[in-house]
Specification:
21 strands, alpha+beta, eight-stranded mixed sheet
Length: 495
């Protein structure tokens, strides 16, 4: 990533210090990273954003995006300067109404110097005017913007925001969103939350979307293209909006047969995880050539390839489970990714059980028995896999296996109380793997550090005694009927 001092005579320095108020003496630039060990330059220090208002115009023919982002934030230190994560070309920045100077640095940093220093605890309004062609911008050698034949899409993890709006790009800084995008008539714009209104004028249509619950920056989505849109309401009363590219070809039927069950699946998941936490539901499938899916809040992104072999409700279960595990409760640091992926995978195992295609126990037995001790799979530690293995299959399968071991150790009553209680305890906030271990011990009344160490933090296959203790692979193992469907989602987040 990237990184970012004066000493005159002693008397001069002393007299200067006496002349500077204490608040001014403490002024310093906000850190260019929020402090994540996996991605040191991601996010920023010195402030916390509460709301993003994005008012944009997008031309699919040229992939040009232009407009204004307004950020409402509060300083968390005395600030002389602060950064936003962004890649497009900025023409003007204002802080609390006054023009601010700005410059770019590193791979994706926009450095902003307000005309007046900002004291800790100050409410600030930051306005950034910009334009650019997202598909031409790279950072760290890659481009996360998805160009399609009829528009563009932003849906990436752990980064994706830089290509379309300036932000404090880390899950620790969640905010609410108003996203208003103007596109040519005949093109639709899809984003998170509820569609507040649309209006047309002079050949352009403006779509106004709102996310009224805290949302991590990587979960904000931008999708412009030609879509068939369906609307409905789940049995529990949540409005559902789904969108399908008009160019899905022979995958259109399988995609619809899967995603149109979103309301049903979300209601089913709420039996395990508690009430659905948002006021909107849905999913969208643009005509991309990617292989992954992403739990963009309230309206997951799916790739056409997710449905290449027919309908796949398992991938829908996975992304909707993330609405609780990853979206409602987000990671403190990216090393805590098991909190997202292990639980979303385990939801797929529960769905298999629901569909009569193999119990969670049978799938756990199969995962344990089907990989030899020298398989590199076991060398990845789901509890802290490292940035290079953040989306390794072990985080999913070994991560879910750890949950079955936990379930067998503490019993169904305590286990399912944890699945329902955890999202409520940390709702709209952030938590770590260590937080989960403590919570599981609190609810179950059992010491669990050794169990979690064995199944999440050792770079080797848990031995037979550990497996017997956790009631894993205790009998002959056959491949569960659901296994191929689950395995078809193995790369849903690898991109």
């Amino acid at each position: 990533m990237h990184r970012r001092i004066m000493a005159p005579g002693a008397l001069a320095a002393a007299s200067l210090m006496l002349a500077i108020p204490a608040s001014a003496a403490s002024l310093s630039p906000g850190a260019p990273g929020i402090g994540d060990p996996y991605y040191p330059a991601y996010g920023n220090g010195g402030y916390d954003v509460s709301h993003y208002d994005l008012r944009l115009k997008y031309q699919p023919a040229t992939d040009e995006l232009e407009g204004t982002a307004t950020l409402l934030a509060k300083t968390t230190q005395d600030l002389s300067r602060f950064n936003l994560d962004f890649l497009l070309d900025v023409s003007e920045v204002r802080v609390n109404g006054a023009k601010a100077s700005f410059a770019t640095s590193g791979e994706h940093e926009l450095e902003i110097t307000p005309n007046k220093a900002l004291a800790k605890g100050t409410s600030i309004t930051v306005v950034v005017r910009y334009r650019g062609v997202p598909s031409t911008k790279k950072a760290y050698g890659f481009n996360a913007w998805l160009r399609t034949s009829d528009g563009g899409v932003a849906a990436g993890e752990p980064e994706g925001a830089w290509w379309w709006f300036p932000s404090n790009d880390h899950p620790l800084d969640k905010a609410t969103y108003d996203v208003s995008v103007q596109v040519p008539n005949g093109t639709q714009f899809i984003s998170n939350g509820t569609l507040q209104s649309t209006s047309s004028r002079a050949g352009w249509t403006r779509y106004n979307w709102r996310s009224n619950k805290p949302q991590a920056t990587y979960l904000a989505t931008f999708a412009a293209g030609r879509f068939d849109v369906t609307t409905g309401t789940s049995e529990s009363g949540i409005p559902v909006i789904n969108a399908y590219s008009k160019d899905l070809g022979d995958r259109a039927g399988a995609a619809r047969a899967s995603i149109e069950r979103t309301g049903e699946i979300a209601d089913w998941l709420s039996e395990y995880f508690g009430p659905y936490p948002y006021n909107a539901l849905g999913g969208y499938v643009p005509n991309t050539n990617t292989g992954y899916a992403l739990e963009t809040q309230t309206r997951p992104f799916y790739s056409p390839s997710n449905f290449a072999n027919g309908s796949n409700t398992s991938v829908v279960v996975h992304e909707l489970a993330h609405q609780w595990w990853g979206d409602l409760v987000s990671v403190k640091k990216w090393k805590d990714i098991w909190i997202n992926e292990g639980f979303a995978r385990y939801a797929q195992w529960l769905w298999s059980e629901h569909e009569g295609e193999g119990t969670a126990q049978e799938i756990a037995d199969y995962v344990y028995a089907s990989r030899a001790a020298d398989d590199a799979f076991w060398s990845v530690e789901p509890g802290d896999p490292g940035p290079e293995n953040q989306f390794h299959i072990a985080v999913y399968d070994r991560g879910a296996l750890a949950l079955q071991a936990l379930r067998n150790e503490i019993g169904d009553d305590a286990f399912f109380a944890i699945l329902k209680g955890w999202p409520q305890k940390y709702a709209y906030g952030n938590a770590s793997v260590a937080d989960f271990v403590r919570y599981a011990e609190e609810v179950s009344g059992k010491p669990l550090a050794a169990l979690f160490d064995t199944w999440l933090f050792q770079p080797s296959k848990p031995g037979a005694p550990a497996a017997r203790s956790a009631s894993i692979a205790k009998s002959a193992v056959e491949q569960p009927k659901s296994w191929k469907k689950i395995a078809a989602t193995n790369e849903v987040h690898e991109h």
